[in-house]
């Protein structure tokens, strides 16, 4: 059912909704990953192992910053889906204004901090000296695109909250095509432009994000979409900003914890030298594809849960969870099998150094066999997030990454005197996160929280005026 330029996910077949809503999101993720792969090919095959290592040590910093945007926009997605499911469109408009103010404000502030502290952060990560200067230059240029990325992520999340996953896909396709065309032009200096080397990929990202962001805003205004950004009205900000932050701060902490965990793990990997860092970077590209369906199914499940809870259809959530496990688990198992059986062929796409490939194969044999556990965790986390329980999923990340992965990676790698200890720690953390998340889901505490909110909202409603009720009944008679 179409409504207000979105899709009503509170009625109809749940498996059909999951598939039709998730597929454009997965396709968008594949497009982004495809660009990441193309970028890695340019860097790894034509600029060398050192350039690939520079990108590898830079990306955890970018992911940490982007993680804050993903947390705030996850809150926007949850609130928009609940408002849309409840058909409260005036409140939806206020959510849009608050979300855009938060997204751009945080993007600009974090970019300024990143530009200032980039060298200190990379030194703290034990970045190899031979790649340090290149990594600093690349990261400082890339960070300039962060406010634009925040704006794009916010609008994508709100569109998805209304059940529209196709529009973000089309504009993501435009962005990827533009970056793919610009990469070789700016890296190698075609058409009279200077050859920028590794920094050319960062400038390509900045330019493409700017063009596509403007195009998406124009498109939404022409369609008169409820989430078309406009100059925010001050009366729309106070309460909604607070509501988004209450959900978004834990989600941002969760995303940042994950990214900071990667920073710490990358720092431990860096301690074993340039070869290990490059191998980790190349194998991590395979990780991106392996967990991509799980991430997008989790986001879809969050939106479906939010809309159905907003409409009061608590009973449909169990079916959402079951079908999410079936779809996400099946796809991840296939990808996991390919990663474990053909690791060398996959790694040769990004790097040709046989020593780096040897280290990357060991990573995929160990980590690739455990992708399924991470996949199922995203399903239960999707339900918990859709119910507004972002604090719970933040605690799950804290347990998995900081209480388990990082300390175990350090201890095992030092005990084994090899990066293999890090690979084992990553695999075991997948299992830990799934067990904790599933335990919370099956305990049903998220349902009690939803019930308490619904009861509180019902209690807050004013008592009906008996005289008005009597007058209405007489009128109907």
Shape descriptor: globular
Structural class: mainly alpha
Number of helices: 17
Which regions are unreliable across 5 or more consecutive residues at pLDDT < 50? 453-477
Evaluate the radius of gyration. 23 Å
Number of separate strands: 2
Beta-strand percent range: under 5%
Helix-residue proportion = over 70%
- What is the N-to-C succession of helices and strands? EEHHHHHHHHHHHHHHHHH
Question: Would you tell me the overall average pLDDT?
Answer: 80
What does this structure look like?
The chain crosses the membrane at residues 21-42, 54-80, 101-121, 141-159, 171-191, 197-216, 320-342, 362-384, 391-410, 422-443. This is Multidrug-efflux transporter. The protein has 477 residues and is mainly alpha-helical. It has one domain (7-448). Helices cover 83% and strands 1% of the residues. It has helices at residues 14-47, 49-85, 89-124, 129-143, 146-161, 166-188, 199-222, 238-270, 274-310, 316-341, 343-347, 354-367, 371-386, 390-416, 420-443, 445-460, 466-476, and strands spanning 2-3, 6-7. Strand 1 and strand 2 (6-7) form a beta hairpin. Helix 9 (274-310) runs parallel beside helix 13. The longest helix is centred in the N-terminal third of the chain and has 37 residues, at 49-85. The protein is globular, with a radius of gyration of 23 Å. Residues 453-477 have low confidence and may be disordered.
């Amino acid at each position: 059912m179409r409504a207000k330029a979105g899709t009503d996910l509170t009625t109809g077949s749940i498996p059909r909704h999951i598939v039709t809503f998730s597929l454009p999101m997965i396709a968008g993720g594949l497009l982004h990953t495809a660009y990441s792969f193309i970028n890695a090919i340019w860097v790894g095959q034509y600029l060398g192992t050192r350039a690939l290592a520079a990108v590898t040590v830079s990306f955890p910093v970018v992911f940490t910053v982007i993680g804050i945007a993903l947390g705030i926009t996850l809150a926007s997605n949850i609130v928009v889906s609940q408002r849309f499911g409840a058909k409260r469109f005036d409140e939806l408009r206020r959510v849009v204004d608050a979300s855009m103010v938060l997204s751009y404000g945080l993007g600009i502030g974090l970019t300024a901090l990143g530009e200032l502290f980039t060298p200190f952060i990379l030194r703290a990560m034990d970045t190899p000296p031979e790649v340090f200067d290149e990594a600093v230059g690349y990261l400082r240029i890339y960070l300039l695109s962060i406010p634009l990325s925040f704006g794009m992520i916010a609008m994508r999340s709100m569109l998805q909250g209304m059940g529209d996953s196709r529009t973000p896909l089309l504009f993501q396709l435009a962005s990827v095509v533009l970056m793919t065309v610009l990469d070789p032009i700016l890296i190698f200096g075609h058409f009279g432009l200077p050859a920028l080397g590794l920094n050319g990929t960062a400038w390509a990202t900045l330019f493409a994000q700017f063009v596509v962001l403007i195009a998406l805003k124009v498109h939404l205004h022409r369609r008169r979409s409820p989430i078309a950004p406009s100059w925010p009205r001050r009366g729309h900000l106070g309460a909604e900003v607070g509501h988004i932050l209450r959900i978004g701060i834990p989600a941002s902490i969760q995303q940042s914890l994950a990214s900071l965990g990667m920073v710490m793990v990358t720092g431990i990997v860096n301690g074993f030298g340039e070869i290990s860092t490059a191998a980790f970077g190349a194998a991590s590209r395979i990780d991106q594809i392996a967990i991509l369906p799980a991430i997008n199914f989790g986001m879809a499940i969050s939106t479906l849960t939010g809309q159905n809870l907003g409409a009061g259809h608590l009973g449909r959530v169990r079916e959402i969870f079951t079908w999410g496990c079936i779809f996400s688990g099946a796809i991840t198992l296939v990808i996991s099998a390919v990663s474990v059986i053909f690791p060398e062929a996959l790694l040769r796409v990004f790097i040709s150094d046989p020593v780096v490939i040897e280290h990357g194969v060991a990573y995929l044999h160990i980590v690739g066999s455990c992708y399924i556990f991470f996949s199922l965790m995203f399903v239960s986390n999707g339900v918990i997030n859709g119910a507004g329980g972002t604090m719970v999923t933040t605690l799950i990340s804290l347990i998995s990454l900081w209480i388990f992965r990082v300390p175990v990676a350090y201890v095992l790698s030092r005990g084994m005197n090899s990066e293999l200890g890090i690979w084992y720690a990553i695999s075991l953390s997948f299992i830990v996160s799934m067990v904790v998340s599933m335990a919370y889901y099956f305990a049903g505490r998220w349902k009690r929280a939803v019930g308490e909110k619904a009861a509180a909202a019902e209690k807050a409603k004013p008592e009906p005026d008996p005289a008005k009720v009597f007058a209405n009944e007489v009128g109907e008679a």
